[in-house]
Amino acid sequence: MRSYGGPRGRVRGVLAAVALAGCGALLAAGCSPPDGAGARPSEAPPGTTAGSAPSGASGGPSASASASGPPAKGQVTVTGVAAQGLESPWGVAPLPDGNLLVASRDKGTISRVEVGTGAVTEVGKVPGVAPGGEGGLMGLALSPSFASDLMVYAYFTTESDNRIARLRYDEKRPAGDQLGAPDTVFRGIPKGLIHNGGRIAFGPDKMLYAGTGETGDTGLAQDKKSLGGKILRMTPDGEPVHGNPEADSVVYSYGHRNVQGLAWDKDKRLWAAEFGQNTWDELNLIEPGANYGWPEAEGKAGKPGMRDPVAVWKTDEASPSGIAWAQGSVWMAGLRGQRLWRIPLAGAALVAEPEPFLAGEYGRLRTVVPLGGDRLLLVTSETDGRGSPEAGDDRILTLTVR
Hints:
5-stranded antiparallel β-sheet; 1 helix; globular
């Protein structure tokens, strides 16, 4: 067991065997820069009453931070290894029985991980996936009605676009043939060798959110008619939702470079992490219709009409992918930065400087998944989208945090 009480921490034991209790079907779902009729819509999206992101120094705490927030210093303990020997793991969806579905970006497959034994069994291949560069099979999310419909949603790259499809998962069928035919709910998201976004998650309103990238074509981020460089909000059937900024559009926010992290806090505010270019990576508080600046602004630029991030990092310290909310903080996985960041928050304000853990201990970190309370899953990502000699050597770690 490893316990980390500060930025670098100290090893206090030996990595334990897997110890992951059953978890509910929670929000689940990244890549570093090269180095029909819908369900009844919600009347108001989460986050519409949240305040503006505070501006200030890089990662610095806001003067308005509340004393009711989490402590300034946190702790991370690695409690076990849920799976190992994985190839290009990306999205993870916890099943109601406590086991996991895991997407392989480069293989285009979904596998089931038995958390009690670490056994990994392929359940099926998603048809139409065309891996390449930072594209492939990425985010996964379970339907809000999974108990009755058994639908798994997947975000993936094809030969022509990025799209979202749902597939029925039937564990009673033979291994390797447990996925039904894909039902495409949304298509036409621009694709590229880089910046394909890929994270999907169902919000507290039971609507589907997706983070997209601008594919390296920076002008797409400011083009409201483009789906690139956006956060999208749609019904489970892929239709625009009442309460979106424009009634006939799924675009929820714009001006993003490459969004791969989505999470909601206890007050249903939406947070998103995205890659910067050469200077600043960002954690943003998402408001419907807001412009987050790219490519006109990177980091805290203070430009009129554009939202500044709540926290920023140098790109070699982060290159953020997945995020999760737990214990009063956003937890952010760093690819190039090879560390897990804790961002303690009181409402929309920083309580203290973001705090790094596990720096260099497990290589590139792709996805963070909340399991409720103080438990997280953390997915490593040694395959960088351009091939890696460590491909097939990734793990899913179990953590407790505070």
